[in-house]
Design a protein that fits this description.
This protein has one domain (about 1-310): 3-Layer(aba) Sandwich (Rossmann fold). β1 and β2 (about 50-55) form a beta hairpin. An eight-stranded mixed sheet has the order 1-2-4-3-5-6-7-8, sandwiched between helices. The chain is globular, with a radius of gyration of 20 Å. It is of the alpha/beta class and about 300 residues long. The protein contains 13 helices and eight strands. It starts with a helix and ends with a helix.
């Protein structure tokens, strides 16, 4: 009992020290806007949220490109792709619910069906009848689930290190582990070392040497946007891979699958699985890249995407 008492005391003292040293209050939307939402950012009211949106390129594009980011990311992850595409194509990207400057959903619903419904609501708001959906990780899951549930709204798919099948990670970012662990995720609502965010990004890159201070700042700032830490825990609880996986083989849209050969979160074998299941698909693996190949090597990966949509 004495040992147990001392152990509890040590845990309590450690927790107090962590809270004192790494306390991180939420940052308000207004506080974050000047740095992370300059022009051409705008905010549109969709499903009761002020959605952070960038809509660039020619408005007469009959088949706009919609880029969907993954967990704990934001529309900024597609900056490199957008720079190459927007001169000739309409490129739409936005922060999906629970992340970025959009923040939490008012109904706290983060099921895959809810995300697919959100994508269609955004297309409706922007008067887009049909478009090319490209998504990374959770964003890829949202993209192909939208194609399954609302096939008439999707002309082509690009899936980048995509979730959706059950999988076993080779390595999971520490931030994801904490957000997915009861008690710890409650602590994370108030305590968030910047080093944890940086470590999580390092885990996702094939070449961590190219990670910049500004990149870590962006992920850190948008993680502590008011409400996002609570929403992240709910997203992990509600959006599990598996639902609709039996429908993947029925996807009729031409599909490009891009994967980083060094992805330790969703192993490249999953890319092979998607390729085998989707009838009209092609798979391109970048051996040296990690879980975010579009962010890590935007020019190399977008060129493959441009070839695909042009065909």
């Amino acid at each position: 009992m004495k040992v147990l008492g001392w152990l509890l005391l040590v845990i309590l003292a450690t927790s107090i020290i962590l809270i004192a040293v790494y306390w991180q209050a939420d940052k308000s939307l207004e506080e974050l806007k000047p740095k992370w939402a300059p022009a051409p950012s705008q905010f549109v009211n969709v499903q009761g949220m002020q959605v952070h949106l960038r809509d660039e390129g020619p408005r007469d594009d009959p088949n706009p490109i919609v880029l969907i980011h993954g967990t704990s990311s934001s529309l900024h992850t597609w900056d490199g792709w957008t720079d190459e595409l927007k001169s000739t194509r309409r490129v739409v990207r936005f922060d999906i619910p629970a992340f970025g400057l959009t923040g939490p959903s008012p109904d706290n619903n983060y099921t895959i069906e809810s995300y697919a419904s959100f994508i269609v609501a955004m297309l409706d708001h922007l008067n887009i009848e049909q478009g090319v959906l490209a998504g990374n990780s959770l964003g890829g899951y949202v993209a192909w689930a939208t194609a399954v549930i609302y096939p008439e709204r999707v002309s082509q798919l690009a899936l980048v290190d995509t979730s959706g099948y059950p999988f076993t990670p080779k390595s999971t970012p520490i931030g994801f582990i904490v957000a997915n662990t009861p008690v710890l995720n409650k602590l994370m609502e108030k305590v968030l070392p910047r080093s944890m965010v940086e470590s999580s990004i390092i885990n996702l890159y094939g070449d961590p040497s190219i990670i910049t201070h500004e990149l870590v700042d962006r992920y850190f700032d948008l993680t502590v946007r008011a409400g996002n830490r609570q929403a992240l825990a709910q997203r992990f609880r509600q959006t599990k891979p598996g639902p609709y996986a039996d429908k993947i083989s029925s996807i009729p849209q031409p599909t490009l699958i891009i994967w980083g050969g060094q992805d330790r979160l969703i192993p490249p074998e999953l890319g092979d699985h998607f390729h085998r299941e989707i009838p009209d698909s092609e798979l391109v693996i970048f051996d040296e890249l990690g879980h975010l190949p579009h962010e890590e090597a935007p020019l190399e990966t977008v060129n493959v995407f441009i070839d695909f949509i042009n065909r």
